[in-house]
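Researcher: For the annotation table, I need C-alpha cells for BON domain-containing protein. Please keep the output clean. Sequence:
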Amino acid sequence: MSDIALRQDIIDELEFEPSIDAADIGVAVENGIVTLSGHVATYAEKITAEGVVRRVKGVRGIAEEIEVRPTGAHRTADDEIAKRAIESIKWSTSVPEGAVQVMVQKGWITLSGEVGWWYQKTAAADAVKGLAGVTGVSNHIELKPRASAGDVRKRIEDAFRRNAEVEAQAIKVDVLADGKVRLEGKVQLWSERSAAERAAWSAPGVKSVEDRITVG
C-alpha cells in the first residue's frame, strides 16, 4: 500500500470514530510510519486516536505528537482533578486500595505506588485518563516481581499459543534481570505486534517490555 492511500485510510478511520473530533488532527505518513499532530480537547481523545491508527492495516509505526488543549467545560483545576482521580481509582475493583498515589500539575496526572500485576497498573491509568481537564498521564506505579524468570517465560509463551492474533513460533522471548522482558522476531501486522506485547505485560512481575518485533 502506498503512503498516500494509507494516509487516506487513517483519515477516514479517525473521522469514522464517533468519540473523536478529528477536525484538528493532522496525519502524515512516510514508509508506513504515521505521525499524528494537531490538538484535541481531552486526553481520552488523544489515546483513542492512537488506538484507531494502530488498527489500520499497513501501519508500521506511530509518532504521536497530538497536544491536549482543554476548553470550556473540559477546563478543571488541579485540586479538583486530583480529588476526582483518587475517587476514580478507589472505585476501580482492579486496583488494590491505598496502593496508588496521585499528583496533578497543570492537568498532568502522575501516578506512583506499588502493585503486583501489570493489569492493576494499567487499570489505575484507565480510571483517570477520561477525567475532564486531564492533559496527560505518567504512570510511575512499580510492579513487585512474584515469579521466576523461567515461569515468566513459560507464561508468556503459553499466552502466545492461546492468542489467535500471535504467531508464537515467530517470536522469541528473553526474560532479563529485574522483571525486564525482551521480544524479538517478525510479524505481518502491527496488531500482532501489539497483541504479543500485551501478552508479555500480562505475566506476573514483568516491569518492562523491550519490543524488538518488526512488522513487514
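Researcher: And a one-line annotation?
Model: Residues 76-143 form a domain with the Histidine-containing Protein; Chain: A; fold (CATH 3.30.1340.30).
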